[in-house]
Write a structure and sequence with these properties.
Elements lengths: L1 H18 L10 E2 L2 E2 L4 E5 L2 E8 L3 E6 L10 H8 L2 E6 L19 H14 L5 E6 L1 H12 L4 E7 L11 H23 L3 H13 L10 H8 L2 H10 L7 H5 L5 E6 L4 H13 L3 E6 L11 H13 L2
Parallel strand pairs: 5-6, 5-7, 7-8, 8-9, 9-10
Antiparallel strand pairs: 1-2, 3-4, 4-6
């Protein structure tokens, strides 16, 4: 059953990848009867970050995780665009932005949080709804801690803020296993130029050990391979920016926390700790889902997220 769910996640991701294969396409990506706007770019701290948008109303920004880019959200944008101006952007180092590995570059969430704040300013938004997955959720949370006045509401899908595991023995043990069995083997594979092996180690760490890259159709696999740069940096540097619990306790912003009922223990424990710390938070467990969340059970996630966002 888990094998099927992992494959289903990959196929759902491909819907987004196939809908917008190139930023220079002369044809607008289509989602049902609604068109997503042509990809645009904006200069953020000297880097051209690409994004797409759809709809009108209060701004809502989707923020992808590691090995993703703006295409990951194309299949999810339409329902939200009925009431919101929806933006999906590719974070620094992600396709089709410039990708050039530099061992001295900042691959931590710090630079992504600063980029997100700059993007909000460049697009002229005063307050935004943020919907983030994995490292994208970590990005949203870090930015909100710095600039809470810019956040209307926030949805966090399992942010890997590992410093928050200090109060969870089970969570810390699970994270240590992830480091030893997945992230560090991925780093060794990357150093040896065995990129597919490294990718498989990483995805097994968040989706389950029975996952095999061979299960993923070619286009979905290529989408992940397009976005290895950040994963290289994260694996080689193990850069998990610590967050201060007292600062989280002062974040007076409505937050919806999503966890999968089959997700790794360490990711679930981080969200549970956030639920304890945040003044305004709800925690929803998504059935039949591991870390894929938004793409493994999209109907349940959309219902929870749209009900939450509509309240604020």
């Amino acid at each position: 059953m888990k094998t099927f769910k992992n494959l289903f996640f990959a196929l759902l991701l491909i819907v987004g990848l196939a809908a917008c294969k190139t930023q220079n396409s002369a044809v607008q990506p289509q989602i049902g009867d609604a068109a997503v706007g042509q990809p645009q770019s904006v200069d953020i701290q000297g880097e051209e970050l690409h994004y797409i948008e759809q709809g009108a109303g209060e701004p809502l920004i989707f923020i992808h995780g590691t090995i993703g880019d703006y295409r990951a959200w194309i299949s999810r944008m339409q329902p939200y665009s009925e009431d919101n101006r929806v933006v999906s952007y590719s974070r620094r180092y992600a396709w089709p932005n410039e990708q050039k590995f530099d061992s001295l570059a900042d691959y931590s969430v710090r630079i992504h949080a600063d980029d997100l704040y700059a993007l909000i300013q460049k697009l002229g938004f005063q307050k935004v709804h943020l919907v983030g997955h994995s490292y994208g959720a970590y990005t949203a949370l870090t930015m909100a801690l710095d600039h809470p006045e810019r956040v209307q509401s926030m949805v966090l899908g399992e942010p890997p803020a590992a410093s928050l595991l200090e109060n969870s023995e089970r969570g810390q043990e699970s994270f240590d296993v992830f480091l030893e069995d997945n992230l560090r083997p991925a780093a060794r594979a990357f150093r040896a130029d065995r990129n597919e092996e490294g990718l498989e180690h990483f995805v097994q760490g968040v989706m389950g050990n029975d996952f095999r890259l061979a299960q993923v159709p070619a286009e979905g696999k290529q989408g992940w391979m397009d976005n290895l740069l950040e994963l290289w940096g994260a694996a080689l540097n193990e850069s998990f920016l610590p967050l201060e619990p007292s600062t989280i306790q002062s974040l007076d912003v409505p937050v919806l926390l999503l966890v999968g009922d089959q997700s790794p223990t360490w990711l679930v424990e981080i969200s549970r700790e956030l639920h304890q710390l945040l003044p305004q938070s709800e925690l929803v467990e998504i059935e039949n889902s591991s870390h894929g969340l938004y793409f493994q059970n999209p109907e349940a996630v959309d219902q929870a997220v749209m009900e939450f966002v509509s309240e604020y």
